Amino acid sequence: MFPETKNGYTYEDCKATADWLLAQTDVRPKVGIVCGSGLGGLADMLKNQVAFNYKDIPNFPQSTVHGHAGRLVFGTLKGRPCVCMQGRFHLYEGYSIQKITLPIRIFKLLGVETVMLTNAAGGLNQDFKVGDIMIIKDHLNMPGFAGNNPLSGPNDERFGVRFPCMSDAYDRELQQMAMDVGQELGYGDFLKEGVYCVLGGPSFETVAESRMLHKLGADAVGMSTAPEVIVARHCGMRVFALSLITNQVVMEYDSAEKANHEEVLQTGKERAEQLERLVSTMVTKIDQKLAFSIVV
Ligand SMILES: O=P(O)(O)O[C@@H]1C[C@H](O)[C@@H](CO)O1
Ligand SMILES: Nc1nc2[nH]cnc2c(=O)[nH]1
């Protein structure tokens, strides 16, 4: 059976969860990280961990997907206080769009200022290869086109405005920082940028759908991230996101390739180390930048 779905969480629901967490850890995170399919190793990098299983956190959904451990981990990444979702929620798990994005509002109430999201995605851009890391510069929110937006329903101004702007959703300074860090780390050959398209899943795309998405300007397709980004921007957090291109989307009828979750997880394993180094190096630079802006 599908997990329980609740349509809408109040500010008080989110605050109760955030306060429950804050009472059990001294970590006061400034950066919140969401790990995509097979990319949960990032959370293991945190030192001085205080970790919670999702099933023990009030109001939290449960992870049901292989490759999503279902733990919220507080700790320090290279000395910087962070909180990390080792596993995210997806629409296809049967949760409401408000429920899959609930942790982002909890991030906000924990004091997070910058959200960094990773995901596994299929490559539509013909110049992309499996193993490329795509810095997301924009998204196509297909569920939103059909009226399924995480901000649907009553708006609570304590989170943000009724009609938030999304033309600057992905922080341009952080995109540039990722490019610079990637170059420094020698990732130039496999670091790309592009537009991410979210679909509801869980079925992968037909050939006709993939061709359509490519024509619409999508470089990669997945089943997450955009709803989280909308909620993060609504409540004023900075956003950085990247996709690991885990498979090439099938665009030809005579192709023998078949998309599958095992390939997605396998590619995650092969690129995990580089991806973790990119994100963790950025965290140290974001922190320096914040410290600098406070001094100035
Ligand atoms: O959580 P992400 O977006 O990384 O997960 C992707 C989309 C599906 O959940 C799964 C398909 O293999 O990977
Ligand atoms: N929709 C979708 N999600 C993915 N996640 C990882 N690969 C893919 C893909 O090819 N399509």
TrEMBL record:
Q: Describe the location of the Nucleoside phosphorylase domain by residue ranges.
A: 30-283
What PANTHER family does this protein map onto?
A: METHYLTHIOADENOSINE/PURINE NUCLEOSIDE PHOSPHORYLASE, PURINE NUCLEOSIDE PHOSPHORYLASE
- Spell out the family assignment given in the record's similarity comment: Belongs to the PNP/MTAP phosphorylase family.
Known role: The purine nucleoside phosphorylases catalyze the phosphorolytic breakdown of the N-glycosidic bond in the beta-(deoxy)ribonucleoside molecules, with the formation of the corresponding free purine bases and pentose-1-phosphate.
Q: Which reaction does it catalyse?
A: 2'-deoxyguanosine + phosphate = 2-deoxy-alpha-D-ribose 1-phosphate + guanine; 2'-deoxyinosine + phosphate = 2-deoxy-alpha-D-ribose 1-phosphate + hypoxanthine; guanosine + phosphate = alpha-D-ribose 1-phosphate + guanine; inosine + phosphate = alpha-D-ribose 1-phosphate + hypoxanthine
- Pfam families linked to this entry: PNP_UDP_1 (PF01048)
Q: Which residues bind a purine D-ribonucleoside?
A: 205, 247
- InterPro entries from the UniProt entry: Nucleoside_phosphorylase_d, Nucleoside_phosphorylase_sf, Pur_Nuc_Pase_Ino/Guo-sp, Purine_phosphorylase
In the UniProt record, the gene name given for this protein reads pnp5a
For this entry, the protein name equals Purine nucleoside phosphorylase
Pathway annotation: Purine metabolism; purine nucleoside salvage
**Which GO CC annotations does the UniProt entry carry?**
cytoplasm
Species per Swiss-Prot/TrEMBL record: Sander lucioperca
